[in-house]
Design a protein that fits this description.
heterodimer, A: 131 residues, alpha+beta, Glutaredoxin, 5-stranded mixed beta sheet, 5 helices, B: 597 residues, Rossmann fold, Ubiquitin-like (UB roll), 4-stranded mixed beta sheet, 24 helices, 17 strands
Chain lengths: 131, 597
């Protein structure tokens, strides 16, 4: 390994920062929760997740945590993805393929507008709380 | 491709000793078997602090916190959590009295809520054996800043503003120490890191070195630049093999990157660090004894002044800082002294790492802001005393400290308050005691340790300690008289005043502190020959209650010295002259016919 110059050190830090910061969940306000039950995976949730990871990486978004969860019950609508953005209602999207995933990143997470045609509903827990 | 899951396995000594290494290997194999090694990264990190429940496996980004994991659980964790996205409920940490049952992420854990991590900022997040990960978390950015944007004066000024005080025990302002050394003209100066952590029950420095070795190396280089030294030594006890291994790896990596060695980052500054192993003598934590040991001599203290900062290793100016002090420094440089000084109390700034042990539910390693109360540490972070027992006292500062009693639970913890209470901050051992602990026995335990570890150079420590121990032993045997209390106070005072180094000066602290706070307990031993907590065996005896004993002979069969006799189905008797008070009969009796009194 060659000795680093000041410039090398800074470059190395920048290139690694993104990766390590993914482990730091503090201060991450936006959550992308992907249903990874058997039904979800069969419907392509893994590819969807990869698309989210890739797009968020490309866009350099640092305050997004991508999480996975089990089956939410809407098995016919898999892959389902729940997005929580502060200031916006928690939103559940259905049939999220890789293209829609990328659109969600741009429209919902970056521009704060919903991708209306794929909104399934608010998650049941919200409905329960409102009753 | 970015990883979608990170599986973090605790690689601290606590978890390693309960097969964390095997868990780590199994997890890697399982991830491979699932064909997901390009999507899931399995990492070994530093101590999470939650040692009570180890080995710990944490999975990100979900922040699932799996406790008491066994190697055979690896398959289920990977198959269920990582592949299928379902939490492994039986392994999740569950907080008592919590309505929701399982705690689904670490942010929800009471154990972490009141903590504030500066020293342990990277512990449990990075892989300590990879310098790149440290660099990614702003590692060596402080060194960079110091080398290219700051003068030594500015570094000292920043430290002065921060109010950082030595975390090794005495609490001497760090900036002053550095400044003394900086001001001395010398052809050679040294930086030494004191990693000779020796207090029973303390493992803060060990965990810091195991979890984030580079932070200490970086701080030492900063100290070198500031004081004008080009050589550093880490004095670490040979009993810390894992910490030594990780330090060796860290030094090698830093040298390869040119972050240690000649012309660091192309600057004019050169600095090198070597490891020196100590043989584990407690006195070598005292700085002058440490230097003697570093020089290859017998570890014995010498009178100060001159202080090592002026005349230290081989007669040259030497700055000696403890591990925890060092780990604070890069953060202070990066975030500024003003930022740091906002944390803590008027006289004690920043955070303190404590090793929380004893009669406490969540034993572990915690980092809290100065000024937190003992109540918050014991009840909120520590989860209280197991078995519904009553809090009796907490002991801080190891063999050099004293006890803090229940009435002082709400005193903010800082250097000054602790010394007002007759204890000290010390290096950060914090041992909690409940109603079953005998204060005399406890003082005796610590004194035995310091008597054992006394180097024998000065009479007050060598002879005083021995005599004091003899008197305590009399108390625990019930043969002491009331006048012995005064004798103990006198000897203690002499030791405090006349001992050569901190070991002897502070050795009587546990004794004085317990006499002052638990006088009645001493009196019960002396006047009534009774140990209220039932710890002092010499004052106790097992008796068989003849009205309850049915003569089942079980105790007689269990007794290892055959001192219980009696006919079948008739009450038995214990021969007190032969009884060794092992308690076997008491534990085995099914009829509660044996009493301890």
């Amino acid at each position: 390994m060659a000795k680093l110059t000041l410039d090398d050190l800074r470059k190395l830090r920048d290139s690694k920062k993104n990766e390590v910061s993914k482990r730091d969940t503090e201060g991450k306000e936006i959550e992308v929760i992907i249903g990874m039950g058997t039904c979800g995976i069969a419907a392509g949730a893994k590819e969807t997740m990869d698309a989210f990871l890739d797009e968020i990486d490309k866009e350099g978004l640092k305050n997004v945590a991508i999480k996975q969860t089990g089956c939410m019950g809407f098995c016919t609508y898999e892959p389902t993805v729940e997005i929580k953005v502060p200031g916006m209602p928690d939103t559940l999207y259905n049939n999220v393929n890789t293209d829609i995933a990328r659109r969600i990143v741009h429209r919902h997470i970056k521009d704060k507008k919903m991708v209306s045609e794929y909104v399934q509903d608010r998650p049941s827990i919200d409905i329960m709380e409102n009753k | 491709m970015a990883y979608r899951n990170y599986v973090l396995v605790c690689g601290g000594t606590g978890c390693e000793s309960s097969s964390a290494d095997q868990i780590f290997k199994n997890l890697i194999n399982e991830v491979d078997a699932a064909g997901m090694s390009d999507q899931v990264q399995v990492l070994k990190t530093g101590c999470f602090g939650f040692c009570e429940q180890g080995p710990i496996v944490k999975i990100l980004p979900e922040q699932a916190f799996y406790v008491q994991v066994k190697p055979e659980d690896a398959k289920e964790i990977i198959q269920e959590h990582v592949v299928k996205g379902r939490r492994v409920d039986r392994l999740q940490y569950k907080e008592e009295n919590s309505a929701s049952g399982a705690i689904t992420d670490t942010e929800g854990m009471k154990f972490y809520q009141k903590q504030y991590r500066i020293v342990l900022r990277n512990c449990g997040i990075i892989d300590p054996e990879k310098i790149d990960e440290y660099i990614a978390r702003d590692g060596y950015a402080a060194l960079e800043k110091v080398l290219f944007d700051m003068t030594p004066e500015q570094v000292i000024d920043e430290l002065k503003k921060s109010g950082l005080r030595g975390r090794g025990g005495a609490g001497f302002p760090t900036w002053m120490k550095w400044n003394f050394s900086k001001q001395v003209e010398s052809d050679q100066k040294y930086i030494v890191c004191n990693a000779d952590e020796g207090d029973p029950g303390a493992y803060m420095d060990r965990s810091t070195l195991e979890g984030d070795p580079h932070s200490v190396l970086e701080a030492m280089a900063i100290a070198g630049f500031t004081c004008g030294a080009n050589q550093g030594y880490i004095y670490i006890r040979a009993e810390y093999p894992l910490a030594i291994d990780r330090l060796k790896i860290a030094i090698k990596q830093a040298k390869e990157y040119g972050l240690l060695g000649e012309n660091i980052l192309g600057s004019k500054f050169s600095f090198d660090i070597e490891i020196r192993l100590g043989a584990g003598a407690f006195v070598c934590g005292e700085e002058t004894a440490l230097l003697a040991s570093l020089e290859g001599n017998r570890g014995m203290p010498i009178p100060r002044p001159p202080f090592p900062a002026v005349k230290g290793l081989w007669g040259k100016p030497t700055v000696i800082n403890n591990v925890e002090t060092n780990a604070n420094i890069p953060v202070i440089i990066l975030k500024g002294g003003d930022w740091y000084s906002k944390i803590g109390t008027a006289t004690s700034k920043g955070t303190k790492v404590f090793a929380l042990t004893g009669k406490i539910k969540n034993s572990g390693l915690i980092e809290v802001p100065m000024g937190i109360t003992l109540r918050e540490i014991v009840y909120d972070i520590g989860g209280g005393i197991p078995g519904g027992k009553k809090f009796k006292a907490a002991q801080s500062g190891g063999p050099s400290g004293g006890v803090i009693t229940a009435e002082h639970l709400d005193t903010p913890i800082d250097y000054e308050n602790l010394s007002k209470l007759g204890s000290i901050m010390g290096s950060g051992g914090l041992i909690v005691m409940d109603e079953d602990d005998c204060m005399v026995d406890f003082a005796k335990f610590y004194l035995e340790f310091t008597v054992d570890e006394s180097c024998g150079k000065c009479a007050p420590c060598r002879i005083g300690g021995k005599q004091l121990f003899g008197l305590l032993e009399k108390v625990t045997k019930g043969t002491a008289v009331v006048e012995d209390i005064q004798k103990m106070r006198d000897i203690s005072l002499a030791m405090q005043k006349a001992s050569l180094c901190g070991l002897g000066q502070t050795a009587p602290n546990p004794v004085l502190s317990t006499i002052n706070n638990f006088y009645d307990e001493y009196m019960a031993h002396i006047n009534d020959a009774k140990c209220p907590s039932g710890k002092c065996k010499d004052l106790m005896s097992y008796e068989i209650l003849s009205d309850k004993c049915v003569g089942c002979t079980l105790c007689a069969r269990k007794c290892p010295v055959n001192c219980i006799s009696g006919e079948k189905q008739k009450p038995h008797v214990i021969d007190q002259s032969k009884c060794i008070k092992c308690g076997e009969c008491y534990a085995s009796c099914k009829f509660k016919a044996i009493t301890l009194g």
